[in-house]
Amino acid sequence: MWRFKAPKEEENTTEFFIQNGAYLLEELIISCNGKSNPIRNFSIKELLKATNNYHRDHILRTTEEFTLFKGRHEDQFITVKKFKGNDRRFTERCVNEVVMLSQINHKNVLKLLGCCLDTEVPILVYEYAANGDLFEKIIEKVGLGNHSVMSWESRLRIATGIANAVSYIHTATSKPIIHRDIKSGNILLDQNYVPKLSDFSFSISIPLGETHVEDAVRGTIGFIAPEYIASGRLTEKADVFSFGMLLLELLTGKTPWSLARLAESLNILFLDYFRSFIDNNRLREIVDSSIWEEEEEIKRQLQTFAELIVTCTEETPTERPTMMEVTKKLRQIERCLHP
Questions:
Q1: Torsions phi, psi for 131 (to 5 deg)
Q2: Which comes out higher in pLDDT, residue 164 or 90?
Q3: Residues 338, 327: Cα–Cα separation, whole Å
Q4: Can you tell me the distance from the alpha carbon of 28 to that of 46, in angstroms, rounded to the nearest whole number?
Q5: Which residue ranges form the domains of the chain, and what is each CATH number?
Q6: How far apart are the first and last CA of the chain?
Q7: Is 75 considered catalytic here?
Q8: Nearest-CA neighbor of 124 among 160, 92, 94?
């Protein structure tokens, strides 16, 4: 049974609390029949104190739409997501994220601790990921301390962890959940570099008894499956395509957009451009130079990893593997690394 826990000192509910709470409850009942993890309501005062009034020194990341702040509450660090402005669509995305994450309990999914419903657009509170996001580490290559690069072993471990998480949301929830925005910027890393899949604001469930769902296109250009762009039709295979693009980032240290520009300059399709390096025994030219090794076993692992990218990004969805099959393949590569 769902439970919503409000702080005891908050006896006088506000207009926003009532409005957002009613909306959230309605969505919980529709999406998971009211069965969800407990959701804590943080007060405005608690979050102001935790973030030192949202001081700029507490900013972890900022985008056009929201800012992530580091906070400290009840002797633990937290991450606070505060949207910019009072756009109704932000409220819808916040509530959607709460609904999705209230059904999920997985070590490789960023845990939602609660939210503040007392503001026009709810504020979300998560566990703290001390090492930032994966995009910073493999694309911008910042924040690695004494390590100038992220090792192949670390990249493979991160890929396997996120594959586990996506496989979980596809198969272990009451209705399959499609994330819709898998990319390195949405992979956070905790103090031990355990990867955490984050940002479920675009996520959507496939109705019971159905094999797909139709919706307006959401996500990040370069990571969106072609059939979804063409038809608005979504299956779990759309996430497989996005995950293949994440693997591409891990392998090359480049974004799909930067590789697409290179392909465009040669007047060939982006994925054909990538596949040409595999087919013509030129993998070394596209693999991030910081992880390339001449050792034969490592080269075989990189080759297998690259071939997995190709299968995940097949144009026809039915030709892509399931995320369970992807996870199995990544574990096989890991076992070769640690026989």
A1: -105, 20
A2: 164
A3: 16
A4: 25
A5: 4-127 (3.30.200.20), 134-337 (1.10.510.10)
A6: 45
A7: no
A8: 94
Please state whether the predicted TM-score (pTM) of the whole model is above 0.85: yes
Q: What are phi and psi of 76, to 5 degrees?
A: -135, 150
In this structure, which amino acid lies at residue 200? F
Residue type, 316: T
- Catalytic-role residue among 118, 181, 239, 288: 181
Placement of tokens 């370069």 in the chain: 222
Sequence-distant (6+) residues with CB within 8 A of 50 are 71, 72, 73, 78, 80
Beta bridge partners of 214: 233
Max mean pLDDT range (1-10, 155-164, 276-285):
155-164
DSSP string across 254-291: S-HHHHHHHHHHTTS-HHHHHHHHHHTT-GGGTS-TTT
Least confident of 18-27, 166-175, 272-281, 292-301: 18-27
Quote the pLDDT of residue 76. Answer: 94
Which of 237, 260, 98, 122 lies closest to 180, judged by CA? 237
